[in-house]
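In response to a reviewer's request, we include the raw inputs and outputs for one of the modeled complexes. The two entities were modeled together in a single run.
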Amino acid sequence: MRMELVYREISPGRSYLKRAYLSINLWFMGRAIQAAARVDDQVRREFRSLPDKFTFALGIMPEGPHFIVQKSGVDSARYIGRCIDAQPVDLKMEFKHLEAGMLTFTFRENTPVATARDRLVVDGEVAYACSVVRILDIVQIYLLPKLVARLAVKRYPRWPLGRKLINRTRIYWRSLIGY
Amino acid sequence: MLHVPGYYEYCCRVKVVAGHDVLERIPAILERVHATRPMIVTDRGVAGAGLIDVMTEAMGDQVTIGGIEDDVPPDSSIEAVRRIAEAYRNNRCDALIAVGGGSVLDTAKGANIMVSEETDDLMAFSGVGTLKRRLKPLIAIPTTAGTGSETTLVAVIKDHERHQKMPFISYFLLPDAALLDSRMTLTLPPAITAATGMDALTHAVEAYTCLAKNPLSDANAVSAIELIAKHLLPVMKQPEDRDGRLALAVAATLAGMAFSNAMVGMVHNIGHATGAVCGVPHGTCMAILLPYGLEYNQHRNGHLTAELLLPLEGADTYARTPRNQRAQRVIARVREMNQSLHDITQGQHPRCLRETYDRDGNAAVPFERLPDIVAAAKNDPAVFLNPEDLDDEDYRMVLEHAWAGTPLDCTRIKRG
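The model returned the following structure tokens for the whole complex.
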């Protein structure tokens, strides 16, 4: 008897809701990085320390959603898109699978714990990864309410109220309109 | 209390052979990895101390040595790695035997990347997981009891142009065998015994107290701490104690297994930067910075630091010390160890950064260089797994205290 008659081929299930959730999160975060680089001095300083046209991506392996951001000018950034194969990237940070991404993006595990548990693969120069992680932390602090942000970063900073409120509004607004 | 994370990975597939006469096993180990023409990588200090002669004598005429490269610099460098890789190719070698401390072992790992990947661009393989296949056989024979590189998946190689220590992390960097022979550490000078012993202690302590700890690495770390606490000071006073020397070598290997699987934190983060910017030996940086790392993180992981009092000072002291004072006692004990090592070495083991000197007797870490160290530390990934975050101001505060040798002002530590 032929094998395919005995065993039915099972295709892996696709978690459409989780993929959609992560896609939206990553899309918004990519645009928020672009916005934060125009609004926040600390983010600008981090971009200044990166090489010209430095491109980095954050996403989910193997073929999950991503965002790609490129340094533009001296200290600003541009959200390039979601297609990881469209252009070469200097630094790729990827969660090993969808569930690992969900743990972090639902704030059950922060990035350092995800790193400690080997859930993240970093492909590229680690010195630049340090800058990118700091940028991601700042952007998360802007995007999330304090209660949630405290779960996402190691230490919630004591920023002046003006920086928090005004910059947050500007980053949200710019992220939505993509500027 | 045993901490069991929701997920962790542990891997140590290095064959460890430890004892007073293990060098004689080299021919059999080479045969096991199908190597017939190894290259020996070492430094002038090790060769000058006659340790290569001890090794070749122990091997007898059963092994054809493809070449001996004995000019690895104190800080492993890209240039040294390139030179050794070229010699390996020219001499048609098929394995590496690294005999030395951390720099030699890491340089040999770097050279192994270049010859196995047939590349001239070592930096293309820096970072985590960039190696995708098995490398040439590598046998590690440590001559210091500190680095643990003989059982780690890490190599740290200095890029002198950028003043940055570049990490290479891959399971393929694990040596095929680690040979711990008491003859190889018996003649280690007191100051280096002290610094490397404290380096091993730091590996174990950071592996136990930082974010990637797991029950298997914890077991390694606790055993390492107990051995170091029991044997480091006695060996300093009686350097020819073969059993003590072997115990320290085993402790360093255990600590290497621990941190290879649990990684490290801010002590290594700032230590790497201090070494890269000012050239201070790694072990010395670790000894000085360890109490500061424990103090800085205490509000996050004080309960873990407290647990280390048991392997560090024994059951009596642990039971006698109130629970809320155990972490402080551990920090104080580390400082006492540094003080004892300073006294035994007649000042050669520094207690703070301002007591470090270069070969010409000049201050190795001038106060004005602290901002440069901060800048380098920000780009070192060891900070990822530190329990508490550090910004420029925090780095500066820790470094200023470590420079002056004063305890941290805990009121200045930010809590989020």
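As requested, we also summarize the result in words. Chain A has a mean pLDDT of 91. Chain A has one domain: 25-177.
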